[in-house]
């Protein structure tokens, strides 16, 4: 385990790769909204990448950087101002992951903290979108719309955790030298 408290060149390179994935997934997400009328694919794209970048780097700040850079670039490309709501969600995700030391391991505690961080952050993003971008009444924004975003977070957890398990079994972490 690397005891260096600072971000390394590999951490920054991996963060850049996941920023690109974040942007691509969030540029495809409106297709899901057009087909389903639900926001769950935006949350999937956001939290799939945040979970993976946290897993591979294990560093505070990489998920915040991924969310901030990815949301900004996706917003500039697509013109969807609502992407800005995922900035505070990424920072909250990063802060909640402190309870886990930014380590996503295959253990009940680790996966529970990661799931709580994901679902809470997705809910907050949904509440911000519902209140400020959709103009929904507070009750509707905090129950119906935010809950659909939380379901998107659950979808991200359900898909990402098996991916992490497979990557762990394939010993992909060797890319970091861990």
Kindly describe this structure.
The protein has 178 residues and is mainly α. It has 6 helices and no strands. The mean pLDDT is 92. The chain starts with 8 loop residues before the first helix and ends in a 9-residue tail after the last helix. The chain has helices at 9-36, 40-57, 62-78, 86-96, 108-133, 138-169. It has a single domain, classed as Orthogonal Bundle (Arp2/3 complex 21 kDa subunit ARPC3).
Summarize, please:
The chain has 178 residues and is mainly alpha-helical.
Structure keywords:
6 helices, Arp2/3 complex 21 kDa subunit ARPC3, mainly alpha, 178 residues
Q: Can you give the mean pLDDT?
A: 92
**CATH fold-level label:** Arp2/3 complex 21 kDa subunit ARPC3
- State the CATH architecture: Orthogonal Bundle
Count of the separate structural domains:
1
**Sheet/helix structural class:** mainly alpha
**CA gyration radius, whole angstroms:** 16 Å
Would you spell out the secondary-structure blueprint of this structure?
Layout: H1 9-36, H2 40-57, H3 62-78, H4 86-96, H5 108-133, H6 138-169
Helix pairs in contact: 1-2, 1-3, 2-3, 2-4, 2-6, 3-4, 4-5, 5-6
